[in-house]
Amino acid sequence: MSSSRAFARAALAALVALVVPVAPSQAQPSIGIVRPGDSASLSSAQLGAELFAGNCMTCHGVDGRGVRVPRPGVGDVRGQGPSLRGVGALAPDFYLRTGYMPLGEPDEQPKRHRVLLSEREIRALVAYVDGLRPDGPPIPTPHPERGSLSEGLQAFTQHCAGCHQVVGEGGVVTGARVPPLRNATATQIAEAVRIGPYVMPRFPRSQISDRELDSIVRYVLLTHHPVDRGGWGIGNLGPFPEGIVAWLLAGGLLVGVCVVIGRRVRG
Amino acid sequence: MSRLWGWLLAGLVLVFGWWRRRGPEGEEPERLVARTSPDRRAENAVIALFGLAALAAVAFMIVYALDDGSRDRTQLYGLTFGACLALIAAALIVLGRRLMPYEEFEEDYPEPEHPDEQEAVSQIIRESGSGLTRKRLLLTAGGAAGGALGLAALTPVLSLGPWLQTDSLYDTPWQAGRRLVDEHGAPLHADAIERETFYTAFPEDASQDEIGAPVVLVRLDPRALRLPPERALWAPRGILAYSKICTHAGCAIALYRSPLFEPTAPQPALVCPCHYSTFDPADGGSVLFGPAGRALPQLPLRIDARGELRAAGNFSGPVGPSWQGVRGERPT
Question: What's the rounded Cα separation, in Å, for the pair B32 and B74?
Answer without folding.
Answer: 50
